[in-house]
Structures are given as C-alpha cells and as structure tokens.
C-alpha cells in the first residue's frame, strides 16, 4: 500500500509539473509556438550533464558564447582578462550586455559558465574557486586534505568552491582509471572536502602516469586515464547540473567539438538536442 501511494504521489507530481509548463503565462521569446517552448523546457530539465570547453574571448567577451555554440557546448569556461596580470581593465558595460544577450539567446545558465581565475590568486577576492593540483613542485592542493585545510581557514565558507581537475587528481595519485574509480574518488572528496563545495569539473586525460605529479593534459580517452573514467563521469548523478569543462590540447580531427560529441555519446539515457 505504501509503495502504491508513493507511485501515485510521483505520478501526481509529474502531471502537475507538466501542467505548469503547459499553462505558463510567459510568451515565447524567439517566436516559436507554445508547444515548442514547452518541449524545450522539458528537454532542458531532462538534460543533466552540461559539457563544454574553455573558450577564447578574443574579439569580445560575447564571442565566448558563439565559440561554445559552434563546438556543441552546453557550458563553457573563459578568462575575463589576462590570467598573468594583477590588474584588469573594467569590463565595458556594452560588452557585458552583449554577453548577457548571447547567453540568453543560446540558453546558457550562469551556473554553467565558469570564469577562470587569474594564475595570480587574490585571497581578498569576494569569491574563490579552488582547484586541485597535480602535486607538481611546490604547489598546494594535490591532496584533498590540503583543500580542506585551506577551506577551514576561511571564515565565510560561502565564498569558497572547488573545481576538480581529472588530470590533476590522477597525477596526484587518485586512480580514476579502473571501473569504480570515479565513484571512489568522489566518495573520498565528499568525505574529506564535501561535495557541496564542488562547483565544476575540468575534464582532461593525462599524459603522465598515476601519481607522476605531472600536469600534462591529454585528449579524452587518449591518455593514461582512459575512456572508462569519462564514461563514469558523464553518468555520475553527483556531477549533474555543474559545468564539465574540457581543457584538452586537441588534435586534427579530434578537437573540442569531437570530444564533446564523444562525451555526450557516452551518456546513458541521453537527451538529444
């Protein structure tokens, strides 16, 4: 009886949700019919993996949106200026408006856009997204415990998030290559740092071997990590609805567009665009 009530409740919720979409008062913004808009909303809700790449802002910050669309991305990362300078010119308001309009036109939600911080970290910034390191040289953050130690020293922890880089994790000794490896890594991350801090994932295979401490990115499935880990990543529910960003070197015939297509092809119950 309890199972039947749960099933009836779930069915009622699904019907209610569909009716809310059907009877939305908002007019279609692009001239499409209400049925088409409803289908788009349902499709967007069903699509849980937001895969993209780090794209250039050359020619204007709004160009990042165009570049992401061109490669089939549903998320993207970008530098907002020189990553090797302490100073950055203020963003032109007109450029900001063009960027916002481009994002709205192509359906990019702000939570799926990852501004990449400067290589010169400003600890006084209102918000910081930490990234795990490969353990190379004197870098800090190769072990999850080191990220936890940094977070523990921040008073207002709402300011802090973490971006998890697959190449860096593998190079630092977290073996995500065998079946179940991604689950084990995320379990440990959750135990030590906390998944509520996870804001994004950098998707990179690794030229270096496990525990090599080498920060050398490789194309998806072409390195030491292998395709199994990336299949697990795109089907891992704990990584739903956050940006999954490629930073791979690319090669002729296997650039960002092809690698994004490959990753989406690995998704089970894929929602086609």
UniProtKB/TrEMBL annotation:
<dbReference type="GO" id="GO:0003906">
    <property type="term" value="F:DNA-(apurinic or apyrimidinic site) endonuclease activity"/>
</dbReference>
<dbReference type="GO" id="GO:0005634">
    <property type="term" value="C:nucleus"/>
</dbReference>
<keyword id="KW-0862">Zinc</keyword>
<dbReference type="GO" id="GO:0008270">
    <property type="term" value="F:zinc ion binding"/>
</dbReference>
<dbReference type="GO" id="GO:0003677">
    <property type="term" value="F:DNA binding"/>
</dbReference>
<keyword id="KW-0234">DNA repair</keyword>
<keyword id="KW-0378">Hydrolase</keyword>
<dbReference type="GO" id="GO:0005739">
    <property type="term" value="C:mitochondrion"/>
</dbReference>
<protein>
    <recommendedName>
        <fullName>Xylose isomerase-like TIM barrel domain-containing protein</fullName>
    </recommendedName>
</protein>
<dbReference type="Pfam" id="PF01261">
    <property type="entry name" value="AP_endonuc_2"/>
</dbReference>
<feature type="domain" description="Xylose isomerase-like TIM barrel">
    <location>
        <begin position="129"/>
        <end position="265"/>
    </location>
</feature>
<dbReference type="GO" id="GO:0006284">
    <property type="term" value="P:base-excision repair"/>
</dbReference>
<feature type="compositionally biased region" description="Basic and acidic residues">
    <location>
        <begin position="10"/>
        <end position="40"/>
    </location>
</feature>
<feature type="region of interest" description="Disordered">
    <location>
        <begin position="1"/>
        <end position="41"/>
    </location>
</feature>
<comment type="similarity">
    <text>Belongs to the AP endonuclease 2 family.</text>
</comment>
<dbReference type="InterPro" id="IPR018246">
    <property type="entry name" value="AP_endonuc_F2_Zn_BS"/>
</dbReference>
<dbReference type="InterPro" id="IPR001719">
    <property type="entry name" value="AP_endonuc_2"/>
</dbReference>
<keyword id="KW-0479">Metal-binding</keyword>
<dbReference type="GO" id="GO:0008081">
    <property type="term" value="F:phosphoric diester hydrolase activity"/>
</dbReference>
<dbReference type="InterPro" id="IPR013022">
    <property type="entry name" value="Xyl_isomerase-like_TIM-brl"/>
</dbReference>
<keyword id="KW-0227">DNA damage</keyword>
<dbReference type="InterPro" id="IPR036237">
    <property type="entry name" value="Xyl_isomerase-like_sf"/>
</dbReference>
């Amino acid at each position: 009886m309890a199972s039947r009530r749960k099933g009836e409740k779930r069915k009622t919720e699904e019907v209610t949700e569909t009716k809310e979409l059907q009877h939305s008062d908002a007019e279609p913004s692009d001239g499409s019919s209400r049925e088409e808009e409803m289908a788009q909303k349902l499709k967007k809700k069903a699509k849980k993996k937001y895969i993209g790449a780090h794209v250039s802002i050359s020619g204007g910050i709004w160009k990042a949106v165009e570049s992401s669309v061109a490669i089939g991305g549903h998320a993207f990362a970008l530098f907002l200026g020189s990553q090797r300078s302490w100073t950055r010119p203020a963003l032109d308001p007109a450029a900001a408006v063009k960027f916002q309009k481009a994002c709205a036109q192509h359906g990019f939600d702000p939570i799926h856009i990852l501004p990449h911080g400067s290589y010169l970290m400003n600890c006084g910034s209102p918000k910081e997204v930490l990234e795990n390191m490969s353990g190379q040289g004197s870098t800090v953050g190769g072990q999850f415990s080191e990220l936890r130690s940094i977070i523990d020293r921040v008073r207002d922890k709402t300011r802090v998030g973490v971006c998890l880089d697959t190449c860096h994790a593998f190079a630092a000794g977290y073996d995500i290559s065998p079946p179940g490896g991604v689950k084990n890594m995320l379990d440990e991350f959750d135990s030590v740092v906390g998944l509520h801090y996870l804001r994004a994932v950098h998707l990179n295979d690794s030229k270096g071997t496990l525990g090599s401490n080498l920060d050398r990115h490789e194309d998806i499935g072409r390195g030491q990590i292998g395709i199994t880990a990336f299949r697990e990543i795109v089907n891992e529910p704990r990584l739903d609805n956050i940006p999954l960003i490629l930073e791979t070197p690319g090669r002729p015939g296997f650039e960002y567009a092809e690698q994004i297509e490959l990753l989406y092809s690995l998704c089970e119950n894929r929602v086609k665009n």
